[in-house]
Amino acid sequence: MSNHTVEIRGERVTIRYTAIHDLPDLMTLWNDGRVMKWVGFPEGLGYDLDKLMNWYSQLQANPNRHHFVVHEKGTGFCGELYYAADKEHKRAGLDIKLIPETQGRRIIANSSRGHPTLHRQSSLDPSAGANVSDQTRYFADHAAGLCLCFQRLRR
Fold first, then answer.
1. What is the pLDDT of residue 43?
2. Torsion sign, CA atoms 83, 84, 87, 88
3. What beta strand segments (E) does the chain contain?
């Protein structure tokens, strides 16, 4: 499926393709209701390693799905990025989940710093009390940059 040696390194954050040795971290993330409540699973998924191995096998078999782990200097594993392309409907989706201890620290927004392909300028400073629609646009701007980079890495 994907080249598992690809990494995106920013000043504080590294994003890389998910490998089998990442599954225990994903199991912890996906079983945490504080994380999963935002995607409809307030009790977490209840996955064990067998279910994760099955998921990982399906991921590897589908060239339109890409899963990445996020690591922060000093923290280690802090979350995931999932990118899926639906070529039939010309759509793509990006899913980002972070462990509770790293939420709200702009890890994904800061992941583009120091990486020329990912760096995207935005006039919005979320710490200045921007409204929700401005924050959504700010997030979408950075997510779009990550999606473009992932598409380039696939070529």
1. 97
2. negative
3. 7-9, 13-17, 65-72, 76-86, 91-98
Q: Which domains does the chain have, with CATH numbers?
A: 7-154 (3.40.630.30)
- Residue linked to tokens 């089998």: 20
Overall residue count recorded for the chain in this entry:
155
Please write the tens of the pLDDT for every residue from 70-111: 998 888 999 998 988 888 888 888 888 989 888 877 776 655
Alpha helices in 8-131 (DSSP H): 23-30, 33-36, 49-61, 107-110
**pLDDT for position 130:** 41
Model pTM? 0.69
Q: Which of 147, 117, 111 is nearest to 14 (CA)?
A: 111
Contact between residue 31 and residue 47 where contact means Cβ atoms under 8 Å apart: yes
Alpha carbons within 13 angstroms on the beta-carbon side of residue 90 total: 0
Please give the distance of CA 98 from its chain centroid, rounded to a whole number: 8
